[in-house]
UniProtKB/TrEMBL annotation:
One Gene Ontology MF term: glutathione transferase activity
Example of a GO biological process term: glutathione metabolic process
Organism listed in the record: Exidia glandulosa HHB12029
Protein name, per record: GST N-terminal domain-containing protein
GST N-terminal domain span: 4-87
């Protein structure tokens, strides 16, 4: 029997390549990821059939010959056949029945993807709310009936492509909606589907999802990122502001992006201060924006120069940690990024937090008043949660940093926490993988 190995050519994200990778993992088939750099995609695109990825390369291990297959649905259909991920005896009807389930879930996935193309943040939020409350539960209701046969999976006791597509969708909803994932909020209504998910999560599919699905890249558009702290400061101060997103950008080489940006320092992130007469002033550079807002919004400890400087030290020190973490995303290989992140979780972040624990002088860093230092700490807590979830050192080392946790809990119960829960997530698009924030407008009355 001829043996084969495989290559998946795609970007360093889950997205369209998620299900093919999961199928290969579950089947124990040898494969490797061949990552495409967004910076060179314009050059590579024309070499791909239909100008799209993923691409599956099938390698005959006996002679090294290679065959290429494009289009996600075709790749999934092929892998289901050769990896025996079809129901029963693999006859035509059984294959078609499994395909009907994956096709319907792909239809749901496409509806979610179209949401990212809506022209405004408000329209996207509204669409996502509808998907959470109506669209997804409606689809899952029908699938719950199909999964009601005896056995752990859609088609009895055998894992098929239909089960893996369901689990891939569960992971996607978890990426997008976290605790509001309809599989979780409607768990009582989807017991059969959650049985499939739990069974897969305990096996190779779950091991893949936990350990090899996230490639360490930040995958957001309209993201929190550099503008997170300025937004939080404005929210806590109760000052009116607007987001000015540039949705026209696409991934491009750094030099091309920099030439394209009409900013003083050719960097994304701009504060526009608008006075009552409509006059506008622009400010660039993250640290300058934070310093300005801390002054005008009263987020400094006092007017004393020493205390103001001391308050700036806290954010500066945490910004240093922030930069260390960000540099991890640009290491050249997945393995290097993973090793760096593990080191940050175990050593780097705990060391920084240990030093900050000593600086707290009351309910907050500087007594009973919220300052920019406290908000920077909370923003770092949220970002560590974004990246590391339950492995965030703020959680795993909570007993070692009670003062910092007290600050975080206090802020979480107020306007800063309200911002985080309701207005920080701008719904990211995992296929565009760029950080875009082109401005913020502060309306001063």
């Amino acid at each position: 029997m001829v043996s084969h190995s495989y290559e998946i050519h795609y970007f360093e994200s889950a997205s369209r390549a998620d299900l093919p990778r999961m199928m290969l993992e579950v089947a124990g088939a040898p494969y490797k990821n061949v990552f495409i750099d967004f910076a060179t995609w314009g050059e590579v695109k024309d070499t791909m059939a239909f100008g799209k990825v993923p691409k599956l390369v099938v390698i005959d291990d006996s002679d090294g010959s290679r065959k290429e297959l494009f289009e996600t649905n075709a790749i999934v259909t092929y892998l289901a056949e050769v990896l025996d991920l079809v129901p029963g005896d693999g006859g035509a009807f059984a294959r078609a029945k499994a395909a009907s389930i994956t096709s319907n879930l792909c239809d749901l996935e496409d509806k979610l993807r179209r949401t990212y193309g809506l022209p405004s943040v408000e329209e996207r939020h509204k669409a996502h709310e509808k998907h959470i409350a109506e669209t997804i539960p409606t689809y899952l209701k029908y699938h719950e009936r199909l999964a009601s046969v005896k056995g752990d999976f859609y088609f009895g006791d055998k894992v098929t492509v239909a089960d893996l597509k369901l689990y891939q969708m569960y992971c996607l909803f978890d990426d997008m909606y976290a605790a509001r994932n309809p599989f979780k909020t409607h768990a009582g209504e989807f017991q059969n589907l959650n049985r499939i998910i739990d069974t897969l999560a305990a096996g190779p599919a779950g091991e893949y999802a936990r350990n090899r699905r996230d490639f360490g890249y930040v995958q957001y558009t309209e993201s929190a990122s550099r503008s997170d702290l300025p937004r939080m400061m404005l929210e806590v101060a109760g000052v009116r502001y607007q987001h000015a997103f540039d949705l026209s950008r696409r991934p491009a080489p750094d030099s091309e992006l920099e030439e394209d940006r009409d900013t003083t320092y050719r960097k994304a992130g701009k504060l526009v201060v608008v006075d009552s007469n409509g006059a506008r002033k622009e400010l660039f550079e993250y640290n300058a924006i934070v310093a300005c807002l801390a002054e005008v919004l009263g987020l400094m400890p006092s007017k004393d120069a020493f205390e103001r400087t001391a308050a700036a030290c806290g954010p500066s020190f945490l910004c240093e940690l922030d930069e260390i973490l960000r540099r991890t995303f640009y290491l050249p290989t997945v393995d290097e990024r993973w090793e760096a992140h593990k080191r940050h979780i175990a050593v780097t972040i705990p060391e920084y937090l240990k030093l900050h624990e000593r600086l707290v002088q009351g309910e907050f860093y500087f007594g009973d008043k919220v300052t920019v230092a406290d908000l920077k700490l909370y923003q770092m807590y949220i970002w560590c949660h974004d990246m590391y979830a339950v492995r965030s050192p703020f959680k795993t080392r909570a007993l070692e940093i009670p003062n910092l946790i007290r600050i975080i809990n206090t802020l979480a119960a107020g306007p800063a926490g309200d911002y985080i829960r309701n207005r920080r997530d701008f719904r990211w698009d995992p296929e565009r993988c760029e950080w875009v924030f082109d401005g913020m407008v502060l309306n001063q009355s």
